[in-house]
Design brief:
Number of helices: 4
Order of helices and strands: HHHEHEEEE
Shape: globular
Largest sheet: 5 strands, mixed
Strand content: 25-35%
Structural class: alpha+beta
Radius of gyration: 20 Å
Strand order of the largest sheet: 1-5-4-3-2
Helix content: 25-40%
Amino acid sequence: MADHVGNIGLRTPCPRRAEAGTSRSKNMRDEPSNPVPAKIHNSLETNKTIVLDFIDKAVNQGNIEAASMHFGERYIQHNPNIADGADGFKAYLQQLKQSFPLVKGEVKRIFAEGDFVIVHMHAKREPEEEGLAIVDIFRLKDSKLVEHWEVRQPVADSKLHANSMI
């Protein structure tokens, strides 16, 4: 399902490299960046897996009941076209699948940091259309989806460069 499951998104400080020939180079040595602790890494990977499973079940399979297992007790929705709560998302998805039974979302990139998972997706309501470039931001708590933001725009070619939006 995912073409690319990008970096986990953690930023670790990189020590400055001393310039050759300076007094700093004699007193400093390159240190490796701090590794991500296994517990944090596993939690981030688990969160990404939960979001990928949710997207696959909800959007690609249209199985909102199976996807519902990922909702927390309270689900806060920031998309102005979807009502708050798991029931709001269920109603939205049912309407979407009824209007566009072939709707699909292809995850291109996924990143996790802390309690957040960010997904860059190419969504198509119909197979022949250019579709939408979507960035979904999910917040998880105790391995459950509790909050969602979404930014989307139609896929378009640029007159300024040949770079794809997705």
